[in-house]
């Protein structure tokens, strides 16, 4: 499940995706790269709050169930003892009138 989006004149983009599954040692996340003038300026992950993650992974559509990795157990964030980096990468997630999840995140590049 890969893709790319170009931003509009306001620097915004939107895309549809399925909620990701999880794998051992990682919090549930979406990978992202930001390109400016054909150069990668940011490679990162966006995370979900645990309540959203648990709600989705409790569904029968996700047979592995809830991700057992604790916030402090993600191998990529293992040195983030106070969760500051991880917390800054959590998407804001709301639901539309149909129950679809809408995740938003703002990235500032200079």
Could you explain how this protein is built, in words?
12% of the residues lie in helices and 23% in strands. The protein has 110 residues and is an alpha+beta fold. A hairpin with a 5-residue loop joins β3 (92-95) and β4 (101-104). The protein has helices at residues 50-57, 84-88, and strands spanning 29-36, 39-47, 92-95, 101-104. The protein is built from two helices and four strands; from the N terminus they run ββααββ.
Average pLDDT reading: 90
* Secondary-structure content class: alpha+beta
Distance between the termini: 28 Å
- Elements, N to C (H/E): EEHHEE
| Strand percentage | 15-25%
Reported for the largest beta sheet, the result is: 2 strands, antiparallel
Radius of gyration: 15 Å
| Tally of alpha and pi helices | 2
Q: What is the percent of helical residues?
A: 10-25%
Stretches where pLDDT falls below 50 for ≥5 residues?
A: none
Shape: globular
Counting DSSP E segments of at least 2 residues, the number of strands comes to: 4
Lateral arrangement of strands in the main beta sheet? 1-2
Instruction: Return the domain count.
Output: 1
Q: What multimeric state do the chains show? A: single chain
